[in-house]
Write a structure and sequence with these properties.
Number of strands: 26
Helix content: 25-40%
Strand order of the largest sheet: 2-1-10-9-11-12-13-14-15
Strand content: 25-35%
């Protein structure tokens, strides 16, 4: 049974159960949502978006985002959720690489869509979701409404092995890589949540993290849908309002990145908030500070499930509620159907306590990188996905992630590879060379610090350099600190010693 058929099955078994409520106050039960998914599936077919073809979504959280997702499941089409925080050149690269036949966008991103259109990509149709901007593009709802609500018949059977979506993650060379995830990958991600956390049909999930991220999609949404529960879609624009919403709607489950949970503790609503109906919260995307965990546990009686995951695999490990304080700093143990090893450079398992690379194998691991056979072959060897993350396992089997082979920076749950920041800085005419490293930040976990060597006679201030990067890379990738240097520490081969640079911003 493919992921789209989850919605069909829910309708057959419990047509009147709540499925979703969105930010606009629209509410759909299982039957109503299934009809919307079916109309979307027929609309995709009318556009020629059938099995194997792509549709891109540059969208805020909405029912329509999930309707596209599950319509792709039913028909075998492939969704490309796009990070709306990216700058226009980054979006253009992703859309050129994935080559969707259509792009659906929230009207908030009309300016970026204009830049995409100007790039001359081979996108046949554009549809706007909400708003009046770019009136030349038809509203998605109006287009979809004219199609029937009966179950679609795909051109050929859609199985667990068929791709469902392509989610882009930053590449070590600076070019994003599209991780192709299958129906089966999503299924086992949901199974791991049910087996590990006991999620069932009574759960009501507040979805505040953006659905273009793997964490939100496979932690906030799909496990609860698979279990028969319901969703509330909301933007995280105000911590006080989110706390009020949790109480008013009796939310008992929410995924968010650590910074969101930290902001909530500083809200004026925190002190009087009643979370007695909350089963637990899930934190991901970056380590959550132990003091924050203690505040929720001691002040509100709410624990955290934490874990370690990747775009290519979803969640790989889980640190459960009972271990969240005792084993703070660990990411827990591998999920049920996953095999996880920590190996040395020769591929041999290291002893407990010894560092090595984390490699994994299991049904939640992605199938390939889109259009990148070389990178796929480098990452998946003998059936094992090499994460490029360094870790160690203690005597009890708990895993800790201790470093990143490619120096990934994680800021508020967003992945930033130094190479893409360096490339943007070095494109400035004043800059001779640049090196980007992670700098600790109390709110975001990490931010970018850049060390910059200028061409002789080409002065530029820190503020001017930062302003010059606006629009070239996403805002969260722009350095928060720039340090000008006359030279870089280097090894005998001439490579910059970033570990020495990091010491200057710790």
């Amino acid at each position: 049974m493919n992921v789209g058929e989850w919605i069909t099955k829910r309708t057959l078994n419990h047509p009147g159960r709540p499925f979703l409520k969105d930010e606009d106050g629209r509410e759909f039960d299982n039957r109503m949502f299934n009809e919307r998914v079916n109309r979307m599936a027929h609309a995709l077919a009318d556009l020629g978006i059938v099995k194997g073809e792509r549709i891109a979504a540059l969208m805020l959280n909405s029912s329509e985002f999930l309707e596209i997702f599950f319509a792709c499941g039913k028909t075998g089409a492939i969704m490309v959720p796009v990070n709306f925080r990216l700058a226009a050149p980054e979006l253009i690269y992703i859309l050129r690489d994935s080559a969707p036949r259509a792009l659906v966008y929230s009207s908030d991103f009309a300016e970026k869509v204009q830049a995409i259109k100007a790039a001359g990509l081979a996108i046949a149709r554009y549809f706007r979701h909400g708003g009046e901007k770019l009136a030349e593009d038809p509203p998605l709802a109006e287009f979809v409404s004219r199609f029937p609500a009966d179950e679609p018949v795909p051109v050929s059977e859609v199985t667990d092995d068929d791709p469902l979506f392509i989610m882009y993650t930053s590449g070590t060379t600076g070019d994003p890589k599209g991780a192709v995830l299958s129906n089966g990958n999503v299924l086992f991600g949901a199974i791991h949540s049910l087996v590990g956390y006991g999620i069932n049909h009574t759960y009501k999930s507040l979805v505040v993290a953006p659905l273009f991220h793997i964490g939100a999609l496979v932690a906030s949404a799909t496990p609860v849908i698979y279990a028969g529960g319901s969703l509330l879609l909301q933007s995280f624009y105000n911590a006080s309002e989110v706390i009020k919403l949790i109480q008013r709607e009796k939310i008992n489950y929410m995924f968010a990145v650590p910074v969101m949970f930290q902001v909530m503790t500083k809200s004026e609503e925190w002190e009087k908030a009643d979370f007695s109906h909350v089963h637990f919260f899930i934190s991901g995307g970056a380590p959550i500070p132990t003091p924050v965990i203690r505040m929720y546990q001691e002040d509100k009686g709410v624990g955290f499930v934490q874990g370690y995951g990747m775009t290519e695999c979803g969640r790989l490990t889980s640190l459960d509620l009972e271990d969240s304080i005792r084993k703070a700093g660990s990411v827990g143990k591998e999920v049920f159907h996953l095999k996880l090893r920590i190996v040395d450079k020769s591929g041999r398992d290291v002893a407990p306590g010894e560092p090595g690379e984390i490699i994994v194998k299991g049904p939640n691991v992605f199938t390939r990188y889109w259009n990148k056979p070389v990178e796929t072959a480098e990452s998946i060897r003998d059936g094992w996905f090499h994460t490029n993350d360094m870790g160690r396992r203690d005597d009890e089997g708990f895993v800790s992630v201790i470093g990143r082979k490619q120096e990934l920076i994680i800021s508020s749950g967003e992945n930033i590879y130094p190479a893409e920041v360096e490339r943007a800085i070095q494109a400035l005419p004043e800059v001779r060379e640049a090196a980007a490293v992670a700098m600790p930040d109390e709110t975001r976990g990490e931010v970018v610090a850049a060390f910059v060597m200028l061409h002789e006679g080409q002065p530029i201030t820190e503020d001017d350099l930062i302003r010059a990067l606006d629009g070239r890379i996403a805002h969260f990738k722009i350095p928060k600190k720039v340090i000008f240097v006359d030279n870089f520490p280097r090894n005998p081969a001439g490579k910059i010693l970033k570990r020495e640079l990091k010491k200057r911003v710790q």
